[in-house]
Amino acid sequence: MKKIPVQITPLRRTRYAYQRLRVCRSCHNFTVLWEKECLHCGKSSFMPVDKMALRLAKRSMQTERLIALFLTLAGVLFSSTFEEIAICLGSGIVLTLLLWLVQRQMTLTEAPRRLHKWFGQEQQRLIDGLRLNIEAAIGIRQQDERLAYEMLREIGTLVNSDRNRLQQISLLRSFVLRRDMDLQLESLLLFDFDEGLAEYIGEIARIKPELIKERTLLYVLDHEPEFLSMENGRDILAATVGAIVRMKRYVTLYPEFIRRYARFLPRDRFLRLFRIVTGVPHLQFSNLATEVAEIYNAKYQWDPEFHKSTQTNGQQL
Are 21 and 13 in contact, with CB atoms under 8 Å apart? Predict the structure, then answer.
């Protein structure tokens, strides 16, 4: 596969996924993308959903204050004496002011509740809007693969779909990946085995090993036989092991998996594994320790770096 060099825009982070949504004030169509004109009505009148929720909350509170004023006015109209008018007018104004003060305090807590209710009412519009986003991303793929990937990545923050993940993986495999890129992995994991995802995991393990975390490791363990059936599957598994030996926790939790591929680790990764095994007491008599000792004796016994490491840890395999 001929790969193309690209410059991927870093993903914009938000505290909550819904904060990526905007809504058209004209037709109430939702979008998670950054287009200026609504894909549904063509107008440029988008507003972030959290601002729309705040507006709805304030509108609801305004309605409540108008009702309070209306009841005050009704009380005044139906009063028969000046004293009753004064009491109704005074108490109505005071209660309306108190209501306004309470509402001011509740605005920030009322907005999320209003947003949740609004999403429930507009669920079909939200689904239709995200479907339009997906169609737009797929439609632009032939002209601009990088932009198509960024659109699908943005949609993927809200749409839990293997089809979307497979589209992203396919595009990523067509790019020249670099360590300085804002790459994703755990958000692309599938339930079933996929060779494209397996290849991508292997590439990530080599260029950005810190992205190999427990969810990815469990995926690899669940599908280890399928990985081995691939032409370069053993190399991918060895690269994964090379990535996870960065952390002592993974070595202590998954020693048997690491043992199976320790022989294929490059020198620097094996050195890291050697130091962990010699430094963790309960690993020193394990099958992993035996395997590490055999590899050490066969390949690195006369390597000065390993002698230095042995002296540092105060013991030898």
Answer: no
Cross-strand partners of 72: none
87 and 63 in contact (C-beta within 8 Å)? no
pTM reported for the whole predicted model: 0.80
Which residues make beta-bridge pairs with 4? 175
Three-state secondary-structure class, residue 97: helix
Among 314, 220, 205, 219, which Cα is nearest to 265's? 205
Using DSSP, state whether 189 is helix, strand or coil.
coil
The pLDDT tens digits for 182-217 are: 999 999 999 999 999 999 999 999 999 999 999 999
Instruction: Give the tens place of pLDDT for each residue, 85-126.
Output: 777 777 777 777 776 776 676 666 777 777 878 888 888 999
How far is residue 284's CA from residue 277's CA, in Å, rounded to a whole number? 6
Q: Which helix (H) or strand (E) holds 289?
A: helix 287-295
**Other beta carbons within 10 Å of 310:** 16
Which residue is associated with the tokens 């099958």? 287
In angstroms, what CA-CA distances link 31 with 9, 37, 127, 213?
Answer: 19, 10, 10, 31
Distances in whole angstroms, Cα of residue 215 to Cα of each of 146, 187, 188: 26, 10, 11
Q: How far apart are CA 74 and CA 69, in angstroms?
A: 9
* Residue matched to tokens 């290849």: 199
